[in-house]
Design goal:
alpha/beta; six-stranded parallel beta sheet; two-stranded antiparallel ribbon; 13 helices; 15% strand; globular; binds uridine-5'-diphosphate
Length: 244
C-alpha cells in the first residue's frame, strides 16, 4: 500500500474501497494488525510527540480521517485520492462482513451496549462478542484484557480518543489476540446515536469539521489544530521543513 508522509506520519494514499479491501486482507492473515485513522489534530499531536508518531507509523494501515489531511497532502504534492474517515471505513467493513466477530471497547458506560444492538440490527454479517466501557482503573484493565483474549474477536474497536487509544493498542498489542484492532475515537458514540454525524451535504463539501464546531462549540480549542496544521504544511512546502 502506497503511503505519503504528512508531517512525519505515513498515511495511506488509497481510496475508501481499497482501505476496506486492505482490512479484509488483514482479517485473512495471522497475527495482529493495527489500523489508525489520523486527522490533522492527531498529526499535529504526533509532531510534538515522537513516541506517538512512532506508534502511528507502526500501523498496518493509517487512513486520512479528515479533509485537512487530504488538502495537506495535495499542497505537499503527494495527493491522497480521498478522505477515508474512520467511521466510514468501519461501516464499509461491517456492511461487507460475513460472520465477523467484533468486540467494542470504549466510550461512556452503556454506549458500547447500545452500539452493539445497533450494529447487530444493521449489519447481518456481524456479531458482537463483547463490550466494555472506556473508563477503567488498572485492576479493571486486566479484566478487560482477559475478556478480549478469551473472546478472540476478529475485529477489536478501541474508542478511547487519541492518543490514548493508539497508545493503549500499542502497549497491549502482544496480549490482545484479535486479528485487526482499530483506534476509532467517537465511533461508538455515533453508532449508539449519542452523537450525530454531519448531514451528507456537509461531508461531501468537506465541511464536517464546521458542522461539528456548530454542534460542539467547546471543541474550538481542539479544532484550531486544523488551521495550524495547514499553516505548518504551507511552511513545509515553501521552506522544505527547514523553517523551524
Ligand atoms: N473516552 C473513553 N475513555 C477515556 C477518554 C475518552 O472511553 O478515558 C471516549 C469518549 O467517551 C469518547 C471517545 O473516547 O467516546 C473520544 O471521542 P472524541 O470525540 O474525542 O474522539 P475523536 O473521534 O474526536 O477522536
Amino acid at each position: 500500500m502506497k503511503t505519503v508522509s504528512i508531517l512525519g506520519v505515513d498515511v495511506a494514499a488509497c481510496s475508501r474501497v481499497r482501505a476496506r479491501d486492505k482490512v479484509f486482507e488483514m482479517l485473512r492473515e495471522t497475527g495482529l494488525h493495527m489500523v489508525f485513522t489520523p486527522n490533522s489534530e492527531i498529526i499535529m499531536l504526533a509532531r510534538k510527540n515522537k513516541a506517538f508518531q512512532d506508534i502511528l507509523n507502526q500501523a498496518d494501515l493509517c487512513t486520512a480521517d479528515g479533509i485537512g489531511v487530504v488538502y495537506g497532502a495535495k499542497i505537499l504534492g503527494t495527493p491522497i485520492p480521498e478522505r477515508v474517515a474512520g467511521f466510514d471505513l468501519l461501516t464499509d467493513v461491517l456492511q461487507h462482513a460475513n460472520d465477523l466477530s467484533v468486540y467494542l471497547f470504549g466510550s461512556k458506560p452503556g454506549v458500547a451496549e447500545k452500539a452493539k444492538a445497533e450494529m447487530e440490527h444493521r449489519f447481518a454479517g456481524v456479531h458482537v462478542v463483547g463490550t466494555q466501557n472506556g473508563y477503567f482503573d488498572e485492576a479493571q484493565e486486566q479484566l478487560i484484557l482477559a475478556d478480549i483474549r478469551e473472546k478472540q474477536p476478529d475485529l477489536l474497536l478501541v474508542c478511547l480518543g487519541a492518543p490514548k487509544q493508539e497508545q493503549w493498542i500499542w502497549q497491549h498489542r502482544e496480549e490482545i489476540g484479535a486479528k485487526v484492532v482499530m483506534g476509532l475515537g467517537g465511533s461508538l458514540d455515533v453508532l449508539a446515536g449519542e452523537v450525530k454525524r454531519a448531514p451528507d451535504i456537509f461531508i461531501k463539501l468537506g465541511l464536517e469539521w464546521f458542522y461539528r464546531l456548530l454542534k460542539e462549540p467547546q471543541r474550538i480549542g481542539r479544532m484550531m489544530a486544523l488551521p495550524h496544521f495547514l499553516l505548518v504544511i504551507l511552511k513545509e512546502k515553501i521552506f522544505g521543513g527547514k523553517s523551524e
